[in-house]
Amino acid sequence: MRIFFFLLFLTIILSLSPSSAGEDGFVSPSFVFAKNISENQRIESAVTHLVSLKEQKNITDNNLCGIDALNDFFGTPREIIISALQNVPCTFLSHLQRVVVFDDINKPRALAGATSLHLRFDIFDLPESEKVIIHELGHIVDLSGIQSKDFRTTSAFKDGSTPIYQDDPSVEFYSISWLHNTRWSLGTRSTDFVTGYAAVDPFEDFAESFLFYIKYGNTFRVMAKDYPQLHKKYEFLKTKIFDGQEFYTGDIPDDTSIREWDATKI
Question: Rounded to an integer, what distance in angstroms lies between the CA atom of residue 119 and that of residue 91?
Fold first, then answer.
């Protein structure tokens, strides 16, 4: 009985073995063994490659935060956008619904609304492309990522004709340096902004500070030590937007009173 089961088992094994026979149907056991090693090595190499690709895809997917708006971007443009997204909390990126490329060379490099990002066709050829996108993402975080909850009491600030409500967290940031859209608070100076462009209005103040926090963290912290309003802005971003995460990026300035016009050009 044992011999019967052994012969049955051997027959099944032989019938399930990969076809590696010659024309006469016979292959020496040593050749089969060597061939299987070779195949296994190739399979292992392929599997390793696929796992590597899967891991890369997972990293990419995490950086995308599940944003369907980026599905049409490939190659360098996609890499630049992902690089810009990777340090922005997904909580805020979930509000990004559309990414549009436009071809009007007379328009700014990029524009953003509450839920959309508009990129000029040549932006991906510019050395500052990632910074420009981060700046625009700052607008999206500002205008839709943090919002009012009761929509009752209007503040002194407006996004165009749309009122910004008093309990909107952005109002706390704006009020550090602004009385309303076009007037600085009493005692505010140009050095209370991270760049010259940040001093244009509260929304650019937020977006430039947002970019500065990510790309020039070291610079921002040193400047904040000398200027109380900048310290308040830094702490707002640290606690209300980035949940305590800080970035050790950028240089430590010798003179904290110098301001560039545009953070994307630094």
Answer: 22
